[in-house]
Amino acid sequence: MKILILGANGFIGSHLSEAILSQLDAEIIACDLADHNLASCLNNSKFHFEKKDITRDLAWVTEQIKKCDVVFPLVAIATPAMYVQNPLRVFELDFEANLAIVRQCVEFRKHVIFPSTSEVYGMCSDAAFDEEESHLVTGPINKERWIYSTCKQLMDRVIYAYGKKHDDFSYTLFRPFNWYGPRLDNILNPQPGGSRVLTQFIGNILRGENIMLVNGGAQQRCFLHIHDGIQALIKMIQHKNNDAKNKIFNVGNPEENISIRTLAESLIKLIKKYPKYKALAEKTQLIEVDSEKYYGSGYQDVSLRVPSIARAREELKWNPSVNLETGLTKTLDFYLNA
Ligand code: UGA
After folding, report:
1. 26 in a structural domain
2. Taking the CA of residue 52 as centre, how many other CA atoms within 13 Å lie in the half-sphere pointing to its CB?
3. Atom of ligand 1 nearest to the CA of 217
4. Is the dihedral of CA 24, 27, 33, 37 positive or negative?
5. DSSP state string for 184-238
6. Rounded to two decimals, what is the model's pTM?
7. For the chain, what percent of residues have pLDDT higher than 90?
8. Span 45-89, pLDDT tens digits
């Protein structure tokens, strides 16, 4: 089997590449703008990497799609501050650039495994979000935060419609719920909201800054360690012709549902165990900040986001296995011992 990974140097792409090489009998064709996260893959004879930009090198991408059996289009902007600051860039990359790729997967009848997102459920009030039943609830147009959610939602709908139109085109959509782990985002980015919350908070502590709790930090997220997320993707590859065919899967850990304030407190507690950073963690304070001040007026938050994972459990025989404390420790070992 040949697998194409577009955006292989990213958080999901780099972990997925490593897992495929070690667990599957498959070759990978991969591209990204850079390769610094792929050190463990680049010398593998089954890993063929080229530095390419999917927005400029579409002819190259087309050739690779033709050669492959499965396509992972993983290039996207996924940080909420960017949705508010540059919504058109999110539309152009996450939707427009990826639509061209999805259309080629349809044309050449290649199985596409596409990253949807937990964000498609938006402010849905269900206690647990169901892939087929839950409503997808976003805010008004002046809340630009929802551009990412709606781009992803529209792509889900487009892929679903292509699946209905062509019996011989197949796909799998996965919805990550706050995956975290080594290589999530760059903790050296000092900008408020410059990375997702976990790496933002680690960076704050290491730089001797206080942690900003947006609107008090009572909002909750379910965090899933990248190892578990990737195992779900491996199962989707293995079951692309049967249990994962033309399906949508939430991939998250409903057992690890915590408030952002609790996440900040846990990180401070865990970082105190690293002698080099103990003093910094001890002096970190939690400061409440208004979301408009932190992100701008185009931001709106999700207060509760819990996945139903019944479908992944039943059909993929997949279950989360890494608890939050273990996962956070592994992540801190990566960032702090580097
Ligand atoms: C994320 C991103 O949209 C995507 O990466 C992804 O598709 C999706 O969720 C997911 O992984 O499921 P969100 O969880 O809102 O969205 O993004 P974070 O930046 O990680 O923020 C989480 C929460 O922490 C938000 O409520 C945010 O307001 C809060 N936060 C963030 C703070 O309180 N302080 C900060 O300094 C940063």
Report:
1. no
2. 23
3. 33
4. positive
5. SS-TT--STTSS-HHHHHHHHHHTTPPEEEETTS--EEE-EEHHHHHHHHHHHHH
6. 0.98
7. 97
8. 999 999 999 999 999 999 999 999 999 999 999 999 999 999 999
Residue 197 Cα, ligand 1 centroid: separation in angstroms?
Answer: 5
* Residues with a CB atom less than 6 Å from ligand 1: 78, 80, 117-119, 148, 176-179, 193, 196-197, 200, 212-214, 217, 219, 221, 260, 301-302
Containing structural domain, residue 148: 76-336
Question: What is the atom index within ligand 1 of the atom nearest the CA of 291?
Answer: 28
Residues 6+ apart with CB under 8 A from 85: 296
47 belongs to a structural domain: no
Report how far residue 292's alpha carbon sits from residue 298's, in angstroms, rounded to the nearest whole number. 8
The number of distinct structural domains making up the chain is 1
Cβ 65 vs Cβ 109: under 8 Å = no
Residue given tokens 């639509």 in the structure block = 99
